[in-house]
Amino acid sequence: MRLNSLRARVVTWYVGMLAAALMVFGATLYFGVQGYLKTSLQHSLTGEAQAIGTTFLAFEEQKGPAWMAGEIIEAYAPELSGRFIRITRHDGTVLYQSGDTRDGVIDASSISRPDFYDGGGRFRSERQAGAHDILLYAQPFRSTSGTNYLIETGSSVAPIERVLSSLRGILLLATPLILIAAALGGQLLMKLPLQPLVTLSERAEHVGTSKLGERLPVPSTHDEMERLALSLNRMIERLEDALSHNRRFSADVSHELRTPLAIMRGELEQVLREPVLRSSVRDSVASTLEEISRMAKIVESLLAIARLDSGVDSIDPKPADVSTLCQWVVEQLHLLAEEKEIVMQVRTTPMTVLIDTARMKQVLVNLIDNAIKYTPIGGRVELTSFVSERMAVIEVSDTGIGIPPADLPHVFDRFFRADKVRSRASGGAGLGLSIVKAICSAHGGSIAVQSTEGAGTVVRIELPLALPTSDKPAASTQTMLTHTSIS
Ligand code: ADP
């Protein structure tokens, strides 16, 4: 349904935008944390180097390197705290160097020794055998007596890597979960406000020509949805008015034409009974009478359709057996078939439907009459009935001339004749199928036609069953009637 695709589109947009926002947020958070941790470590290493310089190295010459080493170990315990500290005098003598850290992350002996230089502190990074990077900071220091030293502090970046890897894991796991939850939530949230629209479109589908009396449900939401339902209802009302006006008009016209036609027919019949009448006058009166009869038939048909459509003529449904009905119709029309050497076959399943038998006979007679009319000599006409999807189905099929595809949608229209010349010659005014359809609709049923030009036509009627029957084919009676076997 279109509303579902609208919902899917909106949710896709919403989830797409959320995904983009989450990616921007995740990247900002990740690189922000990475920068913060790196800067913190750098601050800690520079702070440590400066403190060592001012607190201990300044007194190295007075108190000796052993004193200084003891103070550093006491203050920083580098092996325990995972740090690296090295102090080198400008002559290359290493005054102090921390050992390997206890966690084994820093192998102190493998750390390279930089050249002496003047100026500010420098950072460098060295990869250890365990594939951990060590961030090292070197800071030149000059004592009051002018001796130059190089203070180095270092720390593994492994803890930072661990924090960042956990953060990556959380972001990679949480982002899809948030997106899935958002998609499901979005579907649900969209479903609720769109539900009235779904109900509205479903009900609008059902408001067909025969159900124009129905109205759409109006949600009291005081929004566009309520206004839409109200406007649609007003539109249906106008449509219903126009349609009923149209039906009333054709019913009135047909009704009004009946009396003058009957009077004309009576008068002309009287003229024909005159003993002294010129033969040319007699011929012309007879032909006028024929035309009047044709017109009267059309008027009667129009009146019947209008009355059925408007519900003035209600049908009188009673339980009836479809097989019996089919047999009756075939018996009535077998002579017609015989004349054209058409084979008529009936295959029926006993089933009960609630029908107005007289009108349903009219329907079947009309359809079989059409089938015979439009099937060439030696063809075949079949009348089949069965149960399908809890409906009684009656099919009339023939091997006749068929209906051109362009004409198929119009065969139920009033006065429609697929082949006007031939139809007129065969006496039809194009109202037969309109009556058939009106009767089927009045029974709560439906009618459809399938046809292949040059191969044949199938007209299918579906009627509600009086009693629910299974779709399994019941024992069917099969009768073969041919133009020879019946006589
Ligand atoms: P009519 O009373 O003039 O036959 P209908 O309403 O019964 O009019 O049918 C409308 C048109 O549909 C006909 O003119 C005919 O061309 C076509 N039609 C109906 N039934 C058949 C059929 N079984 N085979 C071929 N054409 C058909």
Brief rundown of the structure:
The chain has 487 residues and is of the alpha+beta class.
The total strand number stands at 13
In spatial order, strands of the major sheet run 11-12-10-9-7-13
CATH topology of the largest domain: Heat Shock Protein 90
Largest sheet report: 6 strands, mixed
The tally of structural domains comes to 3
Roughly what is the average pLDDT, rounded to an integer? 86
Beta strand %: 15-25%
Bound compounds, each kind once, are: adenosine-5'-diphosphate
SS-based structural class? alpha+beta
Q: What is the terminal separation in angstroms?
A: 56 Å
Q: Unreliable runs, pLDDT <50, ≥5 residues?
A: 482-487
Helix coverage percent: 40-55%
Count of separate DSSP helical elements: 11
Sum up the structure in keywords.
487 residues, alpha+beta, Beta-Lactamase, 3 domains, five-stranded antiparallel beta sheet, 53% helix
